[in-house]
Amino acid sequence: xxxxxxxxxxxxxxxxxxxxxxxxxxxxxxxxxxxxxxxxxxxxxxxxxxxxxxxxxxxxxxxxxxxxxxxxxxxxxxxxxxxxxxxxxxxxxxxxxxxxxxxxxxxxxxxxxxxxxxxxxxxxxxxxxxxxxxxxxxxxxxxxxxxxxxxxxxxxxxxxxxxxxxxxxxxxxxxxxxxxxxxxxxxxxxxxxxxxxxxxxxxxxxxxxxxxxxxxxxxxxxxxxxxxxxxxxxxxxxxxxxxxxxxxxxxxxxxxxxxxxxxxxxxxxxxxxxxxxxxxxxxxxxxxxxxxxxxxxxxxxxxxxxxxxxxxxxxxxxxxxxxxxxxxxxxxxxxxxxxxxxxxxxxxxxxxxxxxxxxxxxxxxxxxxxxxxxxxxxxxxxxxxxxxx
Length: 389
Prior knowledge:
By secondary structure, the protein is an alpha+beta fold. It folds into 2 domains: 7-192, Endonuclease Chain A (Endonuclease, Chain A, 2-Layer Sandwich); 221-385, Endonuclease Chain A (Endonuclease, Chain A, 2-Layer Sandwich). Helices cover 38% and strands 19% of the residues. It has 15 helices and 15 strands. It has helices spanning 7-13, 15-21, 32-44, 61-75, 93-102, 129-138, 188-200, 221-236, 253-264, 282-287, 290-296, 328-333, 344-360, 366-371, 374-377, and strands spanning 26-29, 49-54, 79-85, 106-110, 147-151, 155-159, 181-184, 215-217, 241-246, 268-274, 299-303, 311-315, 318-322, 337-340, 362-364. The two termini are 32 Å apart.
């Protein structure tokens, strides 16, 4: 089992160690244990404030470590706020918010399930019981899928990792999910903090157009459409490559057509997806796109054994990673957060990891699809459910 580092004591004994760990303004992680340990280092050395937002927050070996670190930060006088999702954290949400609240930590649940009335007191949306019941019934399909932590208003951790042990290696007691996380300490932190405040205060905020070059969020229908258009236009203007790593690939016809057009222009298009999924029918849903993409010239690889949960995109010299899946839920319903990579080191690391993962993966061929016979021709059936998956 993983023993997360006691980073507070180490940094107290050697302050230079903490300073050196923050020498880079952008640091990319591809291992869950490295990401969690670095984030805990930040939390345990916070001076003024912590904002933590996670779709899934479980009270498991990882979650307990984070609860302890947040409680300890509060004991040092740090202002701590925690926001979790009503569905993603449905299992342990009440327990975690109760524990944190009892220690003076302000905790909230984003859109509790309508029948989870005992969660309503932590809901962002306030009002009468009947009013909240009606609201949550209407908003049940919109989730807060973001994963972020902001410490002292100057450092941001984000990516595709929730607060749970699934992202750890099997040797560390997890399930070996492949993910990307990133730590940032530049002007993007300010924009991420503004998006957190917007959700926390239950307001809509239209980010200025140029902000899309810093972070990608989607806190309103307008910003969701703009984010989607930005990415599809990037693909439409790609000159050399489009490399996609995505856990839940089931995009719209517009997205697929942009990929096909890129192939016709001679752009190298590579798609890396998981060979299995934690969501019922999703692997079949993704497979329903294989035939037309392979015919168009897309190279498709399935990551073996462990679950590929990462979400990353490289278009020429544009690098993006975060929480967004290439499916209808992420683009139409859920709140997401993605960031562009600005340092050459992290860009190179992402490229190398993509190649490493593809080399471990199994390539999907036209011959394989032909050998599946009739099953390959009815693979489109799961698309009937794609708006809810």
